[in-house]
Amino acid sequence: MSGRQLSDLTWPEVRRHVDEGALLAVPVGSTEQHGPHLPLSTDADIALALCERLARTRADVLVAPCVAYGSSGEHAGFPGTLSIGQEALELLLVELVRSATDTFEHVLLVSAHGGNAEPVGRAVARLRAESRDVTVFLPSWRGGDAHAGRTETSLQLALHPGRLRMREAAAGNTRPLAELMPTLWAGGIRAASENGVLGDPAGASAAEGTALLRELTDELVAQVSRWRAGRQAVAP
Questions:
Q1: CA distances, 101 to each of 79, 95, 137 (Å)
Q2: Which residues share a beta bridge with 83?
Q3: Helix, strand, coil: what percent of the chain each, to 5?
Q4: Which of 36, 111, 113, 177 is deepest in the core (most CB within 10 A)?
């Protein structure tokens, strides 16, 4: 990624990239509990990894520093969770992209925390109403593994295996998410799961995480290709 991270560049170097048609990819994550075995940075790590993989595929991508705080109020009560709420996140992204479009004609947001979806969507709608060329990618995966279960554990095993505490990994509440939603709306994750896990990390593997990263990257690359070709408007 040398030379492709915005923060590593000088302003004349950025100008040269922009003159060559560079777009800016902004990872958007969170700092929130992910059970007793995953780091608080899990969502941010996934968002950054996808942006970096996109930049390896497309020469016109620069990767911005990650927005590491999101709307994580549902994780309140677990030490370490830092949430700025929906309104603050929406405003942060609006102002960030307004500033970014002083330099870049095209801005991509990659948000890997489900709780960010509504404020990110509202921010993108506001920015498009201002005629700014911005789009968003919201990675998702099949199955009922809602939070810090097998899927996110596999992703982190592929990305940062040394940062996991697999001896502490344990199942949380494994009921289907649809059944848990009334409890989650009323009392957040703490009301539904003592250890903060919705799902079961058992069976997670780096191989599974690598395969999913490849699948998500392919989806992201395809979406960006359609966007830049002007063939498809991607809804927030």
A1: 36, 10, 18
A2: 70
A3: 50, 15, 35
A4: 111
Tokens of 95: 């102002």
Q: What is the phi/psi pair of residue 149, to 5°?
A: -95, -145
Instruction: Quote the tokens at residue 204.
Output: 């997670």
CB atoms within 10 A of CB 231: 8
Alpha-carbon distance values, 191 to 32, 45, 172, 179 (Å): 16, 26, 12, 13
In the three-class reduction of DSSP (H, G, I as helix; E, B as strand; rest coil), residue 144 is classed as: coil
What is the CATH number that goes with domain 6-229?
3.40.50.10310
Predicted TM-score (pTM) of this structure: 0.94
- Mean pLDDT, rounded, of the chain: 94
Dihedral class, residue 188 (left if φ above 0, else alpha if ψ from -120 to 50, else beta): left
**Percent of the chain, pLDDT > 70?**
95
Q: Smallest Cα–Cα separation from 135: which of 30, 213, 61?
A: 61
